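Please check the following.

. . .
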Amino acid sequence: MRRRFSIRQCWTAALLGILCISGTSTLPAAEDNDPIYQWQRQYYGKLNGQEKLLYTRGFERSILSFADFDGDGDEDLFVGKRDGRIALFRNPGDNQFRLETEDFSAFQEDIQNSRKVRIKHVIDVGTNAAPTWFDIDDDGDLDLFVGSGDGTVFFYQNRGNALLPILELVTPAYMNIQANGNSVPNFSDVNADRAADLLLGNQQGDTKLYYNQGVATRALFCPDVPSQRSRIKGCEKARTLLIGNISPEVDATPTFVDWEGDGDQDILVGKSRGRIDFYLNRGTKLQPEWELESSRFLFINTGGFSAPRFFDVNRDGYPELLIGTRTSRILYYENRDPITTGLKQVEALRRVNLNPRKAPLALMEKACAQIDVFPNCLPPLLEGFGLPLEVTTLEEIVERSLRPSPSFLSTEIGPDIVPDPQASSNAAAPGNMYTMQVNAPVVNDEETTTETADPPVSREARSRNHYWPVTDNFFNIGEMLPKDRHTLVTAGDWDGDGDPDLLLGSRSGALYAYINQGGTEDPDWSRLEVPALAPNGRSFSAPSLADLDGDGDLDILVGRKDGTLDLLRNEGSQESPDWQMAEVRFAKIDIGSRSTPLIRDLDGDSDLDLLVGNSQGFLIYFENQGSPEKTNFVLESARFANAQSSSGNAVPAIFQWDDDENADLLIGESSGTLQLLTHQPQPNYPVSLGWQQQAQIWQNLETVGSSAPFLVDLNGDQQQDLLVGDEDGHLLSWLFIGKQQPTDIAPPEPVMTANTLERLRVSEGQTFTDQPPGPTIQAVPSTPPIVPREPSYELVSPRFAEQNFGNRAVPALLDLDGDGDLDLIVGNRRGELRSFQNDPENGSDRWNLMDENFLEYSGGANAAPVFADVDDDGDKDLLIGNESGSVLFWENRGTPEFPEFFRDPRPMNGVTSGRNSIPAIYDVNQDGRADLLLGNFGGNVRLYLQEANGTGFRFRLYHRRFLDLDVGLGAVPVFADFNNDQQNELVVGSDGGRLIEFRPADATQDTPWGWKLNDGPLTKLSMPVGSVPVFVDYDSDGDLDLIVGTEAGDLQFYRNKAIEEN
């Protein structure tokens, strides 16, 4: 059953911080009156008495962007993350940013009931989101651009205004710019032509500047490939400037900054090994010229990925420096203007109000006048600035104070300003301004202590920006599993104070115990160190708390990676636990691997039973046939409730979902989703029966992977709140705030983007009354039965369409214009994607070239297009393989008759074949989802299985050599029912021209993946070199004909004569 909140409801819920559970999700349900739970994400909690950002998915590979997107006068903080999403930290007005959501959302066009509507979706660019805000259309409000791991830039236009922003996805491939992975965009008008230019970093280490060839209201950025520019009007004289390449390092993350305060833009570029390049603009505002000034900017070294950004956090007029890293830690450097800082140390000026924005010399003269006349003012000034008495002028004080960092090439290194890498990170001495001795990932750059040679001297990069390290944890993140992964959570009151305490399992095998010192309404977690909770040889520890010996205190049963269980008996008391290892291989239980125990009275006999999940996704039930004081667990069901998590690693949790007396089940799994099972037991039936799957993906609650749920009251309202651990070591929290019945929810109110019927076409001189009459109903003869027929192919044309399409031609056919006949697109070695309209004349096909660059394709050489229904919506989407081995995806958001293709890189993120990918779509594992097979240059076929990803989908590599195929060079997989038996056959072409045929095996044949090799009619065809077969009913006679692309660039047409001959 499908339920939706209205757009208005979802928007209101988002403003309140409420998870809009039913926004666009399908909830498989047993009944139509199932309750819909409402949850509120809880991000902050107390750890050791201090509020921390405690319950998050993390901010690994953070890229920051500051913007006043809502027009309230202060800038909010947007954080792009490794998971492809964007977090929003609201600014309440004092620059004390507070996390509002980890999943910032925007509207996106969709199709509902054949109408275009706008639905709000979480922004998800696949991986490595890199947000930046800029008013690209000069309409007074900010638009959003997001770089992605795929290398494209997503463009979200603000179709509201500066006070009420309404973001809508316009394209996931802005201007068709392809950055070769990990695009990081920034905008600034660098040449004062009133049109913003685009600075773009990428995974290969390039930082490129794309000059805007348009105007302020209509930007135009041109590809940096000359052959592609020539096809775009306005790009004939376009230029792209390579600012620099950080090879052998990767992941260039650039940002603009006016370092010297001279009104032009300098550039910083973060690098993959933790350092930062600084490019000084030595040109003018009209003609910028950047030169590398430092390859170790301020000697900063984060130890890995670095993404610098500038923002005036303390509002003193000088921007602070914040650096995203490969972990969730954000480094924060405070900017302390050396002139203002020095003047603050002068006793005579402590009560004098000086304007810090004044020019340095003017500020110094003002200070001198406040102290005494010159030169009498010099001694106190020199003392405040820590300078020797040999300094005799105010100009020299300014000169020495503004001397550039010794990390700059234009600076003469002197012993008085070499940074001290051994200084404390909390010191305020100038010698420590570049080094941060804090927690990982920050490391010291030891090379700075040994460099003594004077580098070449040129114009010095003087600046009032001087930076002191403040913290490596700008977001104030608290870690429950420090430096560990795979959180598995349970809770119980083990100290007898009436509030829940936490126990967390981990990948290392250690158990992390946290006592609640805050009470039932406001938990405050404090770590309890217990020797018995050390790993002790186990890994992937999964704890469950229960009184297993009837002595009134809580013991611990721990699952292990090897499938066994450990018992840690509580030898203390209800108020003071003392856990000791009591039994390894508890009850001799072994369920295979990744045991995750749950201890509850499941059969209602007043003693504790045992339910254990395993790596295969099953739940194994052990009934307690002993007593509460002496348990005796006996295996009763190896597939409890007939449940299985499709992705494996089942983690069960009890959930009172429907308010009846029967316990229901939530099951976590590897995919990160949660499965819900409800229990309606029948009298005298075993407890393992009577379960019903309520939702395979429950209410769109998901983690990055390996979800581990547990329900416990966290705020004292007597309701079950939800904790979920994940594979990255995070702990997520949702507070229950109520539930609704479906009848309480208003009907959907989607925002229509089109509400116009197509007009009837009337020829000149014709009236509406001249239109043909409506259709008459006629008896339709019964359709003749479908008879399987082996194909009989005859070469009709060795040069289909009478033209050459370029070397390594790869054809794909689909009716693109709704006229009822097949049109043609052809990819080739040069990376062209040509489209041809089929315009029949006098009974013969006539092919008109419509576009030499269909959909403005710029995905690289060896373009290999395929039309297939990837998302199971009844129309064919477009996939294109290429030389690099990746796959580009265009979703069809039109109809089968009138396709409208929309580029979406997210489903194919991480998909690769190695080289020369050629995609094919088929539901290999028969789970109702279209899977992806990729042929490659090496002659193998890779299998990617489709799986759910929030409201969308993604592909996960399952097998690198499907069917152990090796066709030599250039495998080309194709699925088609060419023998009319209502089952798809698999054909694999090759560069050598040979076709290999597989057919579905019957139930009696033991074959890999259910396919058997067949020596059929296709294997006897003599194919050309580089053959790419495509099956299509070209002549509309009811069977599939064969069109073959070739290395030479011609297409060959083989007509299937099977029906004619029979």
Notes: Confidence is low (pLDDT under 50) at residues 1-32, 412-459, 751-784. The first helix runs from residue 7 to 15. The chain is about 5% helix and 35% strand.
